[in-house]
């Protein structure tokens, strides 16, 4: 196991008996999930995806990624929500932060996840003299944000390299049969990848939605899937809370929610985890926040946020619990030098790595927040490898599916997301939308 869950700092709030009391329900819900009898059962394609994904599909993604890597020095991944965050989380997690988004391959840029003119104008400036490829990703094929961004970027690319060459540089990831993007891709003759019908956006990181941009960034998607598969096997084998950490995590957060700890704050100590937290917020928020129920998922990045949100975490309203997402083994470390004059008084740390100091910051924070009345748990990732990342993605998917079932909601739909769209379309005078 490449992940380890520690719930010691939750024990003053959640007893072993309370956990044991939930076991029968967890087992029942596990069986519902596995037998496909539960809520949202037409969206369970992710459940055994890591072990079922076909070799031919992996090869096709790798070949497309290779072709993009050899043709282009920038890939723009165009998508929003579940069609965007998984890839960004993985790429940020694996690649060095200060050496351009793509490390040794093309730089990876993102579009279609906002409607800011400034953002797209800046992006158009940045890519002006680069060889650009586009991967437009939308399951419905009709989402406004990526559709608008794609229209603008497609035109720019066609003007830069001509219509024929642009066609060779565009890959569409969308539904197998329907949607405007599917029609457009067929009409233009773009290479396409399919988002399976039975997998919702936020559970799609291990489909071509995530796999293609991740592979373009030079990350080994076979290793990522291997990690996913390991977590899938572990979570399928046993529903017992002492054997299934994903379910233990779900059970603990459920019991805390029942005690009016209504906000879960994911706290990370590595900038590499910034978009993992964003991906997790979407997964949990969109899966659980319905029927006036559900934990509010928030995130902080320490230690910087200890100097802003740290005050609130220590002494604010006691409606929160904290989930620390940690990395046991960094890729690289930097040690603190010895100075003869010791004018800054830091010689007591000389020879120590930053990771050592960071670890003490975590331990000090966890103890302080517990003392301040904030239960906290930690999920430690063994390292920053694709295998560990694959395990983590699946761990959270499984845990959130069970959490939704524990709450009694369908964790695989998102009816609330439609409401703003109706208003926006009316304000934009989109044909076919009437005034309310
Ligand atoms: O998780 C989800 O289903 C959503 O976040 C979608 O991924 C998001 O709205 C984008 O939808 P689409 O891929 O259809 O453009």
UniProtKB/TrEMBL annotation:
Species of the source: Nitrospina watsonii
Reactions mediated catalytically: alpha-D-glucose 6-phosphate = beta-D-fructose 6-phosphate
Annotated Gene3D superfamilies: Glucose-6-phosphate isomerase like protein, domain 1
Record: active site: 286 (proton donor), 421
The keyword Cytoplasm is assigned to this record: yes
Localization per record: Cytoplasm
Family: Belongs to the GPI family.
Pathway membership: Carbohydrate degradation; glycolysis; D-glyceraldehyde 3-phosphate and glycerone phosphate from D-glucose: step 2/4; Carbohydrate biosynthesis; gluconeogenesis
Name of the protein in its database record: Glucose-6-phosphate isomerase
Encoding gene, per UniProt annotation: pgi
């Amino acid at each position: 196991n490449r992940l380890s869950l520690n719930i010691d700092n939750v024990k003053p709030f959640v007893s072993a008996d309370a956990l044991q009391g939930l076991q029968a329900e967890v087992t029942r819900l596990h069986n519902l999930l596995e037998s496909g009898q539960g809520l949202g059962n037409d969206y369970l394609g992710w459940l055994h995806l890591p072990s079922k994904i076909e070799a031919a599909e992996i090869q096709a993604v790798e070949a497309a990624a290779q072709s993009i890597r050899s043709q282009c020095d920038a890939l723009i991944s165009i998508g929003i929500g579940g069609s965007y965050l998984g890839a960004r989380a993985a790429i940020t997690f694996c690649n060095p932060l200060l050496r351009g988004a793509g490390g040794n391959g093309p730089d990876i840029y993102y579009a279609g996840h906002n409607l800011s003119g400034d953002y797209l104008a800046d992006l158009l400036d940045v890519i002006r003299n680069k060889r650009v490829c586009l991967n437009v990703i939308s399951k419905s094929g009709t989402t406004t944000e990526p559709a608008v961004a794609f229209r603008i970027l497609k035109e720019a690319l066609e003007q830069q390299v001509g219509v024929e060459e642009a066609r060779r540089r565009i890959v569409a990831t969308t539904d197998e049969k329907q949607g405007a993007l599917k029609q457009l891709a067929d009409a233009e003759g773009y290479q396409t990848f399919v988002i399976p019908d039975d997998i919702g956006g936020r559970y799609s990181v291990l489909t071509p939605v995530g796999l293609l941009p991740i592979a373009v960034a030079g990350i080994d998607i076979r290793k990522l899937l291997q990690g996913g598969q390991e977590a899938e096997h572990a979570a399928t084998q046993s529903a017992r809370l002492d054997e299934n950490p994903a379910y233990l995590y779900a059970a603990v957060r459920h019991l805390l929610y029942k005690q009016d700890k209504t906000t879960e704050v994911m706290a990370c100590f590595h900038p590499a985890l910034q978009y993992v937290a964003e991906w997790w917020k979407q997964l949990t928020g969109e899966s659980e926040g319905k029927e006036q129920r559900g934990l509010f998922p928030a995130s902080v990045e320490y230690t910087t946020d200890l100097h802003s949100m740290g005050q609130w975490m220590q002494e604010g309203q006691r409606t929160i619990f904290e989930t620390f997402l940690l990395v046991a083994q960094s890729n690289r470390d930097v040690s603190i030098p010895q100075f003869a004059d010791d004018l800054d008084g830091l010689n007591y740390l000389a020879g120590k790595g930053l990771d050592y100091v960071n670890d003490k910051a975590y331990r000090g924070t966890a103890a302080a927040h517990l003392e301040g009345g904030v239960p906290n748990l930690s999920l430690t990732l063994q390292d920053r490898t694709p295998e560990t990342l694959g395990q983590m993605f699946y761990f959270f998917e499984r845990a959130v599916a069970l959490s939704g079932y524990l709450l009694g909601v369908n964790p695989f739909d998102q009816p609330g997301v439609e409401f703003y769209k109706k208003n926006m379309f009316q304000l934009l005078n989109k044909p076919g939308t009437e005034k309310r």
